[in-house]
């Protein structure tokens, strides 16, 4: 894993993105060459504009593929699944390249040439991915990890390590039991606890140790052994850091407060604040201009369905616990909460209108919150603001819940692109773990990644209710 601006990024995904960028640039040149087999390419297209067009093609295609989640690497993904995601990405790429030609006429190459470029790029990308994923299945790209601990926390870490959706492959060599009361892992995977950990590491060729011990009091950790492992180049990783790195979560059930206090992150300096403000303004105004026709049509349809109000204002909790009124397109009946008590949204919620179901599916109901961003009450990216009624309940039941109010709430966020729509306290815990990760590691780079993932959620309709 690579760490860029405090955010963990898969080295495999970065490598694949760089390789495919080169493949796409090469496909652009080859496509032009095929189109003008009987002519000198340099006569058909100026050399400098060709390079600019090829780079634009690569950037647009990388963005389109990212929007369809093609860099959220799944090592077990089939060729068919890759093909089915690549095809709509190419359609989106073709549309975006056509727009680029109109906005930047100097890059114009003609739809015929663009067609040849895609004709070369599609098989080239598929071939690249087949080779990449076949290579990833070898043991050369596999990390051998040992768990210190064999209880419930070690079991949770095991489930995460064996998740096929991870951007890294792990081979679990075994578990060293400590003074925990319960053993929650297979007995066959237990290693002798009387053998020094550094000797086990050498004997089993371990590359990383995951410390998954819930209670560390009473001398349960072999600190001297772990220090010797650290000094010979073996990674020693706390379970909280392991979840942060692999799942982009900060687990509240196993979190040590000292880990938050003395660890890195929580950058709220002047440069970050100023950059965040500029980012919010640019993105909000751009989205508002591009989506304006859609917003007008949406408003008209909402009014025509039941002649009720177009917008819906609701009190939410923002930064530092301050209340504000969030603005949304109305997606529910006017009497949705006639009982007077706030309710969690339910799957296929009967309170939604026909138009409301559609705009919730496409997340169009959230667009008016751009005005909240322009007023400074929200950011474009951040934890979703919750209602005061639920905030009071969740702060009492979930530790660290109030930490999410240390920054401005957002229209979209890490929890929105990684988890489905929350409808219970249990869902709120899961979403909080993503929000804590964002609060701790927020950066302009992470904001851009979340925006790309948001586009994927909107296109594929994930997580709506």
From TrEMBL:
Protein family (similarity comment): Belongs to the bacterial sugar transferase family.
Chief subcellular location: membrane
Transmembrane segment boundaries: 51-71, 83-104, 110-132, 281-304
Lineage, opening ranks: Bacteria, Pseudomonadati, Pseudomonadota, Betaproteobacteria, Burkholderiales
Membrane topology: Multi-pass membrane protein
InterPro entries with a match to the protein in the record: Bact_transf, EPS_sugar_tfrase, Sugar_tfrase_EpsB_2
Biological source species: Noviherbaspirillum denitrificans
One GO CC term, this protein: membrane
Compartmental location: Membrane
Name of the protein this chain belongs to: Exopolysaccharide biosynthesis polyprenyl glycosylphosphotransferase
Pfam families in the cross-refs: Bac_transf, CoA_binding_3
Lineage: superkingdom: Bacteria
The Bacterial sugar transferase domain, residue ranges: 276-459
Keywords: Membrane, Transferase, Transmembrane, Transmembrane helix
Molecular-function GO terms, alphabetical: phosphotransferase activity, for other substituted phosphate groups
């Amino acid at each position: 894993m690579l760490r860029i601006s405090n955010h963990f990024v898969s080295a495999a995904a970065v490598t694949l993105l760089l390789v495919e960028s080169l493949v796409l640039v090469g496909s652009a040149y080859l496509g032009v060459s095929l189109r003008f087999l009987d002519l000198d390419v340099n006569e058909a297209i100026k050399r400098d504009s060709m390079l600019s067009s090829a780079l634009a093609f690569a950037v647009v295609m990388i963005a389109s593929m990212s929007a369809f989640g093609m860099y959220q690497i799944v090592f077990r993904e089939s060729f068919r699944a890759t093909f089915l995601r690549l095809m709509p990405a190419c359609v989106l790429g073709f549309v975006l390249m056509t727009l680029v030609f109109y906005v930047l006429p100097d890059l114009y190459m003609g739809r015929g040439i663009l067609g040849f470029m895609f004709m070369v790029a599609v098989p080239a990308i598929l071939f690249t991915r087949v080779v990449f994923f076949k290579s990833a299945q070898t043991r050369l790209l596999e990390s051998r990890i040992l768990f210190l601990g064999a209880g419930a926390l070690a079991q949770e870490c095991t489930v995460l390590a064996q998740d096929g959706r991870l951007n890294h492959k792990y081979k679990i060599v075994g578990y060293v039991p400590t003074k925990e009361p319960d053993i929650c892992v297979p007995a066959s995977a237990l290693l002798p606890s009387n053998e020094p950990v550094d000797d086990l590491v050498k004997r089993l060729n371990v590359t990383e140790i995951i410390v998954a011990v819930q209670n560390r009091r009473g001398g349960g950790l072999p600190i001297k052994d772990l220090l010797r492992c650290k000094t010979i180049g073996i990674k020693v990783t706390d379970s909280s850091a392991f979840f942060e790195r692999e799942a982009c979560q900060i687990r509240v059930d196993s979190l040590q407060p000292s880990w938050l206090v003395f660890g890195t992150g929580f950058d709220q300096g002047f440069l970050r604040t100023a950059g965040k403000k500029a980012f919010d303004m640019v993105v909000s105004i751009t989205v508002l201009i591009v989506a304006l026709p859609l917003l007008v049509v949406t408003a008209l349809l909402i009014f025509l369905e039941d002649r009720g109000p177009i917008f819906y204002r609701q009190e939410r909790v923002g930064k530092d616990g301050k209340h504000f009124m969030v603005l949304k397109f109305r997606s529910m009946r006017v009497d949705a909460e006639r009982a007077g008590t706030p309710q969690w949204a339910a799957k296929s919620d009967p309170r939604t209108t026909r138009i409301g179901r559609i705009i919730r599916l496409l997340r169009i109901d959230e667009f008016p919150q751009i005005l909240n961003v322009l007023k400074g009450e929200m950011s474009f990216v951040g934890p979703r603001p919750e209602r005061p009624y639920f905030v009071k309940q969740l702060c009492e039941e979930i530790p660290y819940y109030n930490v999410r109010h240390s920054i401005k709430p957002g229209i979209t966020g890490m929890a929105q692109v990684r988890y489905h729509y929350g409808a219970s306290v249990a869902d709120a815990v899961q979403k909080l773990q993503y929000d804590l990760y964002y609060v701790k590691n927020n950066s302009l780079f992470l904001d851009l990644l979340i925006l790309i993932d948001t586009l994927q959620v909107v296109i594929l309709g994930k997580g709506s209710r």
